[in-house]
Design goal:
Helices cover about 30% and strands about 25% of the residues. It is globular and about 50 Å long. A hairpin with a 2-residue loop joins strand 12 and strand 13. By secondary structure, the chain is of the alpha/beta class. The strands form three sheets. A six-stranded mixed beta sheet has the order 2-1-3-6-12-13. It has a four-stranded antiparallel beta sheet with strand order 8-9-7-10.
Length: about 230
Amino acid sequence: MYTQSELKQQVAQAAVEYVLPFLTPDSILGVGTGSTVDLFIDALAAHKHAFKAAASSSERSTVRLQSLGIDVQDLNTIERMDWYVDGADEIDAALNMTKGGGGALTREKIVASVSDKFLCIVDDSKLVDRLGAFPLPVEVIPMAKNAVARQLRALGGNPVERAGFVTDNGGLILDVSGLSIEDPAALEARINNMPGVVCCGLFAIAPASVALIAGQQGVRTLSGDGF
């Protein structure tokens, strides 16, 4: 039996092998944040001459990329990228995701928006029939914390401030459990429209393009058509 750490390592290596054929010496690769992405960055380092640079979704990933000799460019200088690679806290068969366990959800969504395609890399514990077991992270402006929390409770959620955590943007995170996520894209839009919300962790309006999922039988590819 493979451990979860071993599965993460397998899918990280598979992701490098997946994106390499698409890269050229002029390519800029979008890179996400998290424990699986850390392993992806490490595996990517051996191929750093196959592409020009990376665009990073967090200070954490930027430091790791630069420490391995990979140039990181300011997203404001980039018009588009072919691929963005990131993990997820939950993903369903339609490639809707819940993200933000590491608190980088806003920058992840921004970098993903500049990329033509999103490759999600996870172990199979993250694959679910329906989103919602993992509390939904919502980044808020500090002065709006209580106002947003009241609106989230009105939706049936139980928001809890993430203790001692400040995002790279200076925001706070409310982790919201108890939500009924029947229509992920509609709920994403509704929460994002609440005054004071910077971004919510639903990635359904623009879901993943493809997912690599590591399990005991190996790494499989999931498209938006299901299994």
